[in-house]
Amino acid sequence: MDIFNVISLIGGLAIFLFGMKVMGDSLEKTAGNKLKSILENLTSSRFKGLLLGLVVTAIIQSSSATTVMVVGFINSGVMQLSQSVGIIMGANIGTTVTGWLLSTTGISGGGSFILEMLKPSSFAPILALIGIILMMFTKKQKNHDIGGILLGFAVLMVGMETMSAAVDPLKDMPQFAQIFLLFENPILGVITGAVLTAIIQSSSASVGILQALSVTGSVTMGSAIPIILGQGIGTCVTAMLSAIGANRNAKRAAVIHLCFNVIGSILFLVLFYALHAIFQFSFVAR
Questions:
Q1: Long-range contacts made by residues 6-14, C-beta under 8 angstroms, separation at least 24?
Q2: C-alpha span between 156 and 219 (Å, rounded)
Q3: Is 285 helix (H, G, I), strand (E, B) or coil?
Q4: Can you tell me the distance from the alpha carbon of 69 to that of 94, in angstroms, rounded to the nearest whole number?
Q5: Which of 68, 80, 138, 267 has a CA between 20 and 30 Å from the CA of residue 282?
Q6: pLDDT(33) > 90
Q7: Given this model, what pLDDT does residue 257 score?
Q8: Backbone angles phi and psi of 28, in degrees to 5
């Protein structure tokens, strides 16, 4: 990384926050009873909310995008904080689909056209085009507001992509990948996974690096488990960024996302290593 990457990172953050504001303001204008009632039906129970978050994240392959949308909904008053809990939990489950896709397509092998088009980075330009048409060539205020939502989301995605592109050179640096191999202590492994994922702002890229190292035998299962848990924590950075300038409940939703991953990682580590102490799992051998 050089100074130009740092400038791109800062610019990407500014674009991301601007897109968040545009989307939030437009959502607030269009937040009628109909939209609220639809979301209430979809999240009427924790289980329904969990399924919604799981399905949406599995389709678009980005828990960050799902969580950012939830923060935007809460900030605009379309969704209540209580409704977001299930969706956030589901998003964390749905994001594991990306890891499975990476493992079944040969780490770097591209997915099908349909899978590629379902990624936010692929359909965001289409949403931007539709949004600008609605804003420039229609006269109804409602259409303008809907266009603002689509355009704001597209700009937000461009900001995310710009930030990711700014730090993208890091994932191809052997020295960066080797950091995954430095720490054998489980706690340090979690911290490593969290920090590196937060830096490159993509759990998918981070998981891809780890899987590539695992294929070579450089990383054992015992080393990988804490790092994977840390990657789940590191991916929360996007949601935390989206809460900048948002209202209190929107900030709380981002914190819930972070706490879910942190607490879940701690509980899993304690349970796993307690069972390992009893049964001595052979696959944990370093």
A1: 6/166, 8/162, 8/163, 8/165, 8/166, 9/162, 9/163, 9/166, 9/167, 11/162, 12/159, 12/160, 12/161, 12/162, 12/163, 12/164, 12/165, 12/166, 13/159, 13/163, 13/241, 14/159
A2: 35
A3: coil
A4: 15
A5: 267
A6: no
A7: 92
A8: -65, -35
3-state class (DSSP) for residue 80:
coil
- Check whether 109 has a pLDDT greater than 50: no
Cα dihedral 176→98→62→96 (10° resolution): -100
CA distances from 197 to 47, 200, 202, 207, 240 (A): 28, 5, 6, 9, 14
User: What's the rounded mean pLDDT across residues 182-198?
Assistant: 83
How far apart are alpha carbons 130 and 94 in whole angstroms?
28
Q: What is the pLDDT of residues 10-25, one digit of tens each?
A: 888 888 888 878 887 8
Burial of 247 (0-12, 13-18, 19+ CB in 10 A): middle
Residues 6+ apart with CB under 8 A from 44: none
Asked if 235 contacts 195 with a C-beta cutoff of 8 angstroms, the reply is: no
Beta carbons of 65 and 157 less than 8 angstroms apart:
yes
